[in-house]
Design a protein that fits this description.
Elements lengths: L2 E4 L3 H12 L4 E4 L8 H4 L31 H14 L6 E2 L4 E7 L4 E6 L2 E5 L1 E4 L22 E3 L13 E5 L3 H11 L4 E5 L6 E2 L8 H9 L1 H16 L10 H17 L3 H6 L12 E2 L3 H5 L4 E4 L3 E5 L2 E4 L4 E3 L2 E4 L13 E3 L6 H7 L17 E3 L12 H22 L4 E3 L1 H15 L27 H9 L5 E3 L1
Parallel strand pairs: 1-2, 1-7, 2-3, 4-18, 7-19, 8-17, 9-10, 9-17, 10-13, 11-12
Antiparallel strand pairs: 4-5, 5-6, 14-15, 15-16, 20-21
Helix pairs in contact: 1-11, 5-6, 11-13
Bound molecules: NADP nicotinamide-adenine-dinucleotide phosphate.
Length: 479
């Protein structure tokens, strides 16, 4: 193969589109039996996107038929399936193929890709495994002994019915705020266990009217302009994510005023008021979460959970809460990039060991790592965003990688790799920029490792990323 792509979510499919267009011989290896990545795996009630769909979609595959401003999860999954079929990518996908080890062989300058369906060899490899794939389970004593169902949002049981049950939801991140209104409408009682309050703002979600959809269908340019307008409205919000900025202060005030207007109960308002800077954790958009918390069958519990018992949870003060079911909206092991995959580079070093020595994952534009020639990552270290669409970043990455592969093929050379000095300079600038952002603030967040090194997020505007990804780094070795 010229190229092997691991994963068939937004990243893998976006890369496959470019590879197909370039006429490369490529395969996509997918561990599951369907495309879709996070949108295949996350099927909890209420799952939807919090980035507007006309922007949270491929630039090469605009969809005039999105049903809502923020499409529900199953609709996004259907869009990805349709895109894979429409662009002839599906026939290049090997499903049920779990990749466990990559080894670069200097003798034949090929990557040896070990998988549950045998060994493949390819000149170049792109990992598109996502950052938010493996669920994080809370380390709560007694969790394994709980008598009722325990469902993580990323591994939901479609057959579960909340009807009349006493439900406990742990977590108040982006998944929880979508899940809680749905469960609360059916449950006998719902207790939301909150460790820290999220910053929230209105989502302003609504259905598109038939005439709007017709207009998008008939006037593709109109749809493109609409997409750009969403992009720029998100991009303009970047200064809110600079720590201590005037925009951050103003936006914090606006969100607190909105909270006051939404919640009648002073106690609930107090519970839902964040005690850390805006943007430090992901800012959440919802029109339905706060009203759900005011339902008579819903309580918010901010006391620490001491342990889980077979019949419920015991709190730090000794109070017990009886529960029939526990929903874990506790997020992902986002700091473990490329989980379950060993990557052995040109000098025999394993990538995770290299990252451990560096104090956390890093990569040039989150794409390339010195010592790992012809290996590229999508949604790698420091490419997540707090203010814009990840699909935009993935398309920048697919474009950069395609260019690199084309350059390798045209040059008749064997390998392309980023220089370690170039990488060091890049990383220094990146971390200096990140130190000025909201995510460096005092909060717990999946954006950073335990050591406070921010390994998830990009440091500045997406326009900045786009520009960097259009130019070659000064020191790129093609040998
Ligand atoms: P998350 O943002 O990591 O939130 C996890 C929540 O669980 C936090 O509130 C956390 O509390 C809490 N938690 C974790 N361990 C706990 C424990 N032992 N006891 C009590 N509480 C605990 O996870 P997520 O909500 O699944 O979202 C992850 C990311 O997925 C999002 O930031 C977003 O990028 C993506 N996502 C996107 C969408 C979308 O609409 N596009 C939807 C869902 C998810 P602390 O905050 O105090 O740590």
């Amino acid at each position: 193969m010229d190229l092997i792509i691991i994963g068939s979510g937004f990243g893998g499919l976006g890369m496959a589109f470019h590879a197909a267009r370039q006429g490369q011989r490529f395969l996509v290896l997918e561990r599951a039996e369907d495309v879709g990545g996070t949108w295949r795996d996350n099927i909890y009630p209420g799952v939807a996107c919090d980035t507007q769909s006309h922007h949270y979609s491929f630039s090469f595959a605009p969809n005039p038929d999105w049903s809502r401003r923020f499409a529900p999860g199953p609709e996004i999954h259907a869009y990805l399936r349709d895109t894979a079929n429409r662009f002839g990518i599906t026939r290049n996908i090997r499903f049920g193929c779990n990749v466990t080890r990559l080894r670069f062989d200097m003798a034949d300058t090929l990557w040896h890709v070990e998988s549950s369906r045998g060994i493949f060899r390819a000149r170049t490899v792109v990992s598109a495994m996502g950052q938010l794939t493996e669920p994080a389970f809370p380390a709560l004593p007694g969790l394994a002994d709980f008598a009722g169902p325990v469902l993580h949002t990323a591994r939901w049981d479609a057959g579960f019915s909340a009807s009349g049950k006493r439900i406990g939801v742990i977590g108040t991140g982006a998944s929880a705020i979508q899940l809680v209104p749905e469960l609360a409408a059916e449950a006998g009682h719902l207790t939301l266990f909150q460790r820290s309050a999220p910053w929230m703002c209105p989502k302003d979600d609504r259905d598109f009217t038939e005439s709007e959809k017709r207009r998008f269908r008939r006037f593709p340019l109109w749809q493109r302009l609409y997409r750009y307008s969403i992009y720029w409205s998100w991009e303009r919000s970047w200064p809110e994510f600079l720590d201590g900025s005037r925009r951050q202060k103003r936006r914090s005030r606006e969100m607190l005023e909105w909270l006051d207007g939404q919640v009648a109960s002073p106690e609930l308002r107090r519970q839902m008021t964040p005690d850390y800077p805006l943007g430090c954790k992901r800012v959440l958009l919802s029109d339905t979460f706060l009203p759900a918390l005011e339902r008579p069958n819903v309580d918010v519990c901010t006391a620490q959970i001491r342990r889980v018992t077979p019949g419920g949870v015991e709190l730090a003060g000794g109070t017990s809460i009886d529960l029939d079911m526990l929903a874990l909206a506790t997020g992902f092991t986002a700091q473990e990039f490329l989980p379950g995959l060993a990557v052995i580079g040109a000098e025999g070093k394993e990538l995770h060991e290299v990252w451990e020595e560096a104090g956390g994952a890093e990569g040039y534009l989150g794409i390339m790592v010195p010592g790992f020639p012809n290996f590229f990552m999508m949604y790698g270290p420091n490419t997540n965003l707090g203010h814009n669409s990840i699909v935009f970043m993935l398309e920048c990455q697919a474009h950069f990688i395609s260019k690199a592969i084309r350059r390798l093929h045209r040059s008749n050379k064997k390998t392309i790799a980023i220089d370690s000095h170039e990488m060091a300079g890049y990383q220094q600038t990146l971390q200096d920029e990140l130190a000025r952002t909201a995510w460096a603030g005092n909060c717990t967040s999946w954006y950073k490792t335990g050591s406070d090194k921010i390994t998830s997020n990009w440091s500045t505007t997406t326009l900045g990323y786009w520009l960097k990804s259009r130019f070659w780094p000064k020191r790129l070795s093609v040998d």
